[in-house]
Amino acid sequence: MSTASRLETPSIAVLPPGEAYDYDYFRARLGDEELLSRSVAIRVFRMPFLAVPAGGTRRGGCFPTDSMALALAVRDALKSYNGFPALRVGWLCSPVASWGVAWGDRPPVTWDDESQRLNFYGLHAPAAPGRSLTPSPAVLSCSPTAS
Fold first, then answer.
1. Which site from 1, 50, 64, 114 is most exposed, i.e. has the minimal number of CB atoms within 10 Å?
2. How many other C-beta atoms can be found within 10 angstroms of the C-beta atom of residue 86?
3. pTM recorded for the entire structure
């Protein structure tokens, strides 16, 4: 079999949460140290990002990827960790349209406002004077064929 026609399993690694590039982002917005400590950093290629479990006020989560193969590998890695119920691979519409893994409750197709989206994911906006919390068009709409 030629190398070009062989399908290879993508290489990912599970790391401690503090290794994730976006760890500080979640630490500033999650407000649940116990949940943050149960998170895992998933390194796809060279960049680790945080997968935060569902629990407490966080009803669900997602991890966008570039391909279905990567999404399947991330899903398989998260299967052995608590807090990632109802793992599913599919086309995610937010924050950007891409393949990915989602867990927990299914989010609404659209959000009434940014605070509703933040509440679903158990997040709060960090204190920033003069910052507007208006949702982006990508958050508010998604192709009905993508669901």
1. 1
2. 11
3. 0.78
Token pair 């599970």: residue:
14
Q: What is the pLDDT of residues 90-145, one digit of tens each?
A: 998 766 678 999 999 999 888 898 899 999 999 998 766 554 444 444 433 343 33
State the burial class of residue 116 (Cβ atoms within 10 Å of its Cβ: 0-12, 13-18, 19+): middle
Instruction: Determine the Cα–Cα distance for residues 133 and 8; give it in Å rounded to an integer.
Output: 42
φ/ψ region of 38 (left if φ > 0, alpha if ψ in -120 to 50, else beta) reads alpha
CA distances from 97 to 62, 64, 87, 115, 127 (A): 12, 8, 18, 21, 28
Q: Where does the chain show beta strands of DSSP type E?
A: 12-15, 40-44, 47-51, 60-65, 88-92, 98-104
